[in-house]
Design brief:
Arc Repressor Mutant, subunit A, D-Maltodextrin-Binding Protein, domain 2, 3-stranded antiparallel β-sheet, 11 helices, 12 strands, 37% helix, elongated
Length: 321
């Protein structure tokens, strides 16, 4: 390796200070040591890095390119040092959070902004999952924390959960959709005549789940909740949406809420994680979910009520299934 971080640091100090002497002062070295470092680097690379014809040290084209790329290496090295120090203090290098597609990711922004104040060095990765994909992400290890998981907790145990709330659902269709001309409440036989719009379960290893669909019904499957909403608005199909979303779209005149004989029951949702994998970052987020205000801010359904003040489970008493 002909390049070293020390040599790049010397190059950076010369460029900022304008002279070898200024760099020597900044780095607390004798000028001859600075000169030797540059000469050795030029010899190793077989290029001229500075034009020494003037009073100030002026970078050549090769020197400027080396400094530009080298500064990125210096920043990366500094960041790496900080992360290593933070990991030694118990902070994770990265925290992966899976959020169900029924929860808008931007609802996490206030939490993320508050976490930034911890200066932990932990990188946060947000991903969206659908239905069983939340549990699948936790089981496979591609997520450390899931928000909005629903359905039965996978067998085998080892999962800690906190109640997030119960989401209500409403049956919707575009105002121009022919189902709006049918007699309400809509029977299953009537609904079956029209194509449904669904969201694809994002599970990779677990069996895919479907909800709110009738056996044999034509289905248009979309990759996300936003895509499902757009398909409904375009009149491409009918189906259930979280109540708050349905009401929002109804107020905007994009969708109508229709009465049905058999409604889709509200779904219980939870926050889940593995209690044996809790670094400081994960514990910080779990602690925030003790606040009913935090819980409520995540819920899409304005008619849902927080499940009371959740107490942070200890590693010994966390609810596991």
């Amino acid at each position: 390796m002909r390049l070293s971080l020390d040599a790049i640091q010397v190059l950076d100090a010369i460029a900022r200070g304008g002279s070898f002497a200024a760099a020597a002062t900044e780095l607390h070295r004798v000028p001859s040591a600075i000169t030797y470092t540059v000469q050795q680097l030029e010899q190793d690379l077989d290029v001229l890095l500075f034009d020494r014809g003037g009073h100030r040290a002026k970078l050549t084209g090769a020197g400027f390119e080396l400094l530009t790329e080298g500064r990125q290496l210096l920043r990366a090295a500094t960041d790496l040092e900080c992360r290593i120090q933070q990991v030694a203090k118990g902070w994770e290098t990265e925290l992966r959070i899976a959020v169900d597609t029924i929860i808008e990711p931007q609802r996490l922004f206030p939490l993320l902004a508050a976490f930034d104040l911890e200066a932990s060095g932990t990188r946060i990765k947000i991903m969206t999952e659908v239905l069983g994909g939340n549990w699948d992400a936790l089981i496979s290890g591609r997520a450390d924390l899931v928000i909005g998981a629903s359905g039965d907790v996978p067998s085998g145990g080892g999962y800690a959960t906190l109640p997030l709330g119960k989401l209500g659902f409403a049956f919707v269709a575009a105002p121009s959709h022919p189902i709006c001309n049918e007699t309400q409440p809509l029977s299953e036989a009537t609904i079956h005549k029209y194509r449904a719009v669904s969201v694809a379960d994002s599970s990779r290893n677990m069996p895919a789940r479907t909800v709110g669909l009738l056996s044999g019904q034509d289905v248009l499957t979309m990759p996300s909740m936003n895509a499902k909403i757009a398909a409904h608005v375009a009149g491409l199909g009918v189906g259930f949406l979280p109540l708050a979303i349905a009401e929002r779209e109804q107020r905007a005149g994009r969708l109508g809420i229709l009465d049905v004989e058999i409604s889709k029951p509200g779904g219980e949702t939870v926050i889940a994680w593995r209690p044996n994998r809790t670094g400081k970052a994960l514990r910080w987020f779990i602690k925030q979910f003790q606040s009913p205000d935090t819980i409520q801010s995540l819920l899409l359904d304005d008619h849902s009520k927080p499940a009371g003040k959740a107490k942070l489970p200890s590693m010994a008493t966390a609810k596991s299934k």
